[in-house]
Amino acid sequence: MKTPSKNTTGKFTLLLAGLFALNFASAQNITQQQQPFQGVVGKTLADSKESWTAPIKAPKGAPNVLLIILDDVGFGASSIFGGVIRTPNFDTLASLGLKYTNFHTCAICAPTRAALLTGRNHHYVHMGGFAHTSLSAGFPGYDGRIPSDKGTIAEILRENGYNTFAVGKYGLTPDEDATDAGPFDRWPLGKGFDHFFGFLGSQTDQYQPDLVEDNAHVTPDGRNLNTQITDKAIFYLTRQHKAAPDKPFFLYYAPGATHAPHQVAKEWSDQYKGKFDGGWDVFRETVFANQKKLGIIPANAVLPERNPDIKAWKSLPEDERKLYARFMEVYAGYLTYADNEVGRLITYLKTSKQLDNTLVYVIIGDNGASKEGTFNGDIDRSVFRNPVSEEENIKHNLEKIGEIGTPDAKQTNYPLGWAQAANTPFKYWKEDANAEGGTRNPLIVYYPKGIKDAGSIRTQYGHVIDILPTTLEYLGINPPEYIRGIKQDTLQGTSLVYSFKDANAPSRHKTQYYYIFGSRSVYKDGWKAEVFHHPDVIDLSRPKTGTVAGPAVNNFDTDVWELYDLKTDFNERINVADKYPEKLNELKALYDDQAQKYHIYPFIDWEDVLKGRIHHLPKEQPASSQVN
Questions:
Q1: Which UniProt keywords apply (predicted)?
Q2: Residue 300, Cα to own-chain centre: how many angstroms?
Q3: Is 590 part of any domain?
Q4: Residues near 94 by Cβ (< 8 Å), separated by ≥ 6?
Q5: What average pLDDT is seen over the chain?
Q6: Which of 234, 443, 552, 605 could form a disulfide with 103 if both were Cys (CB 3.0 to 4.6 A apart)?
Q7: What's the rounded Cα separation, in Å, for the pair 604 and 600?
């Protein structure tokens, strides 16, 4: 064997030294890891010098962070944003904080939550659809497995001296990992939370939930889940405050409310007896007027026409009006009850003298109001298991009207007419990533020690990916280069801190894409190009066998793009694609660029899902393929 020359050996030695130095420097950037020993080790204690690892501590007086996100609440449901459903605790927080009226989600739950927790676009963190086996796909944007190089807000704050807790809905654990055998790296505790109490899936029964505490399933106690998670949150915070009163906390509070099943005690739903007898048309007009009065929407705004598939309330037979009104009474009680549970949490923070130093975000909905309740409402999913005619579905629901909202009704969800009403002043609803009705949700930011413009409105464009960078900037924390030894990818959100003191500051979040099951859009500087994709599949909102969501145009190339100038037409009433073809082409090209950059391709829609075109994760998966 040829002996290396002295010069070659020297270069090799320098290379090793360089690699060692690089690794040492990298280790220095790994927060919350054992620090390198700084002392001296001699042969005896007398000629040695001790060195102790200093624990990571948050800066003295660092604010607590409370992040609240509700489920399936339309823009126009809550009273603070003009709705007729009472949310007094949200009203109070908003009156002492800021109301963001131009804030956006991803149009459906798991993508929104993945983007919220990571500060990155949902396809970029592999959550283009869901973590459910039946709705994920084996592509980088869709496999439902958030990579470790895209750390969560919980991981970052824990590495900076915070205790971290999560209660309620998680929704980001792959189905195949969600047993008590794990693996647990994609359970909440594997993503930065010290403790978790809630459910891992997208929805659960509110009285018999699929309940998890930390890394194991537990038996629910029979009470409504919202009460259980609030009690557990207060327990976690009380225990921590007693043990380490100066240590800040991060609490992610994510109730299942108001996702189906709408289940709530009659003491709440009966508060709304007769309140919705006027129907969804009157509801929309009332809410629209309230929103103008409150300054939530422009004074010159026009209410879009009722969706042509939804019947006028006055045209419905009396028994149908009675049935549909009861569905909405239950929903309204459910939302007011959820607000009350948030109020219990806020009251605890106030009485324990922690509220004044707590930065609170309230996102009222992870998407627009749900269209999943069919045209006639749903009580027990029998319409989906055994598709029936509209007349049979109405008859079935009328026979069970007394069960709506009770523990016996396993799928209570209101009719589609109420979904459009709850989304006032927008068109369309949940899952429609093309439309503001699917993606625009209210945001409240509360922190009395630092936000002085109490009760005012902010119109800057925002998105759930902005919450993480907003929090880091406000707390004075730099995005980490490493988390637990793994080099971190870049954030994609834009901090909203610039808007806290200046209501007139121009928006800094300039571009944002949206995509859910084929429906898609892209926003840039007040312009929005969008496609309402209609695959030839059975529409979940329609009970009648064979009814399809639209014309058979599953070929994405034939989808018709629309263009809206949101600066003058905020609720997308006037399609100006023909008037500004160059602007439309510019935005279509931008969408293609975003699709390649953030792993939106290949396009996947409901037809691909329901017709079995997605090849799901096999039961026996090689270990190497689990790593991403």
A1: Calcium, Hydrolase, Metal-binding, Signal
A2: 31
A3: no
A4: 80, 362, 444, 446, 455
A5: 90
A6: 443
A7: 9
- Does residue 192 lie in a domain region? yes
User: Taking a C-beta distance cutoff of 8 angstroms, is the pair 157, 65 a contact?
Assistant: yes
Q: Check whether 28 has a pLDDT greater than 90.
A: no
pLDDT tens digits, 582-599: 999 999 999 999 999 999
Q: What is the pTM of this model?
A: 0.90
Tell me what pLDDT residue 606 has.
77
Q: What is the CATH number of the domain that holds 437?
A: 3.40.720.10
For residue 258, what are the domain limits? 64-510
Residue 14's pLDDT band, with cuts at 50, 70 and 90, is very low
| Amino acid residing at 161 | G
CA distances from 12 to 2, 16, 17, 21, 124 (A): 15, 6, 9, 14, 39
How large is the C-alpha radius of gyration of the chain? 26
Write the pLDDT tens digit of every residue in 234-246. Answer: 999 999 999 999 9
Q: Prior bond to 183 cis, omega within 30?
A: yes
Contact in structure between 484 and 33 (CB atoms under 8 Å): yes
160 pLDDT higher than 70: yes
Cβ–Cβ under 8 Å, residues 291 and 260: no
The rounded percent of the chain whose pLDDT value lies above 90 is 81
**Residue 581, pLDDT score:** 98
Task: Confirm whether 522 is domain-assigned.
Answer: no
| Single-letter code of the amino acid located at 112 | T
Contact predicate 168/229, CB 8 Å? yes
Contact 314, 475 (CB under 8 A): no
* β-pair type (163-169, 249-254): parallel
73 and 87 in contact (C-beta within 8 Å)? no
Beta strands at 103-104 and 163-169: parallel, antiparallel or unpaired: unpaired
Place of tokens 């040695």: 48
**Other beta carbons less than 10 A from residue 42's beta carbon:** 10
Q: What is the DSSP letter of 198?
A: E
pLDDT for 271:
98
Cβ-contact 381, 410 below 8 angstroms: yes
The residue assigned the tokens 């806290």 is 500
pLDDT at 427: 92
Using CA atoms, how far apart are residues 52 and 42, in angstroms rounded to an integer?
A: 16
How do residues 135-145 score in pLDDT, each as one tens digit? 889 999 999 99
Task: Give the contacts of 22 (CB within 8 A, at least 6 positions apart).
Answer: none
Structural domain tally of the chain? 1
Distance CA 145, CA 136 (A): 9
**Which residue type occupies 470?**
T
Closest CA to 523 of 512, 515, 533: 512
Q: Three-class SS of residue 22?
A: helix
